[in-house]
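Subject — a protein and its fold

Tokens — whole-number codes for backbone shape
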Amino acid sequence: MQTTSPESVEILGVRVHNLDEQQALDLMVEFIDSGWPHQVCTVNPEFIMRAGRDPEFSQILRQADLCLADGVGVLWAGRVLRHPLRARVTGVDTVQRLAEIAGQRGYRVYLLGSAPGVAERTAAILAASHPGLIIAGTYAGSPAIAEDEAIGQRIREARPDILWVAYGAPAQDKWIYRNQGRLGVPLAMGVGGAFDFISGVSRRAPVWLQSLGLEWLHRLYHEPWRWRRMAALPDFALRVLWQRLVEARSTDQCR
């Protein structure tokens, strides 16, 4: 089955697909129904900055079947570069919507990662919220290469249609990339802290803060250890502005 190739925007060398939430979900259903393995990444400014200094991660993002714009900074960059993205598509919201679709269509889902017990709690909450959802399995495990074979065996025996991996970036995305070919899972998606938010381990920002693009500030307040990761944001903004300036100069020279 041939799946649709969506339009994309390049931000500091990283491709981001230009889809709203419903378009992304429709494409993921195509991926699942095809039966062939597909990788989905949720891109935010930290991903983009990490890709700039991690060639392996950069290659994974280039080869992923779908890179979602998860982060208001990515949307801002698209506007600055005059390639506006349709919408932010977050990992946690996508997990919830995919769980709903899976319950309706009979897809089997597997939850891998996060701290011990969190995947199980998340699975119970999703199953209670979405009638018909089939939980094929849950496991905390580790992204260490030494555990790949044992974890892969668990997943192959569970036969999921959807695999959510919550090891954080870039570990989760690298884990999917090196293991997906032998798992037989049509859709594997790195979901970062989605299990923590759904299970209640972490508190998500109120909707009004999300609408203002300040969800990052709420998370930093509750998880101050993240300041080192978020310190990359000013550098990201400066690099985007520089890319815009270079493109503007190039356009002027061509006139």
